[in-house]
Amino acid sequence: KPKIQCNTEQLILPKLEYGRSEGQSITGGYVYQGDINTKLKNHYIYADFVSGSIWAAKYPALTSSIKLLSDQGNISTFALDNQGELYVAGFSKGIIYQVIP
């Protein structure tokens, strides 16, 4: 069989990735802009549904991530309130947590 060559001129590589040893199902989040957690300001906060880990990556560079928490259950979604504060919901426990320092 002949190999098919892909045109990669308009290919955009991922901005951020993590290996299967760290997780298996990314749960997208938000760039934190609130006032309560100043260390997370201008960081993209995301999680992994399977491992229950939450990470923060400096935005917009997204060059490296810091693991904030582990084993938080099956994180299924993130939300922001009117002040830009961040919340996370766990599927397995049915609990909504506010992300605070």
Multimeric organization: single chain
The side-by-side strand order for the widest beta sheet comes to 1-2-3-4
- Provide the structure class: mainly beta
What order do the helices and strands follow? EEEEEEE
Low-confidence runs:
none
Shape: globular
Number of domains: 1
Biggest sheet overview: 4 strands, antiparallel
Spatial gap, N to C terminus: 57 Å
Q: How many strands in all?
A: 7
The mean pLDDT is 89
Strand fraction band? 35-45%
Query: Helicity range of the residues?
Result: under 10%
Q: What is the count of DSSP helices, taking H or I runs of 4+ residues?
A: 0
Alpha carbon gyration radius: 16 Å
Structure description:
This protein is mainly β and 101 residues long. It has one domain. Helix content is 0%, strand content 37%. The chain has strands at residues 26-31, 43-48, 54-58, 65-69, 75-80, 86-90, 95-98. The strands form two sheets. The chain has a four-stranded antiparallel β-sheet, with no helix packed on it. A hairpin with a 5-residue loop joins strand 5 and strand 6 (86-90). The protein is globular and about 55 Å long. It starts with 25 loop residues before the first strand and ends with a strand. The mean pLDDT is 89.
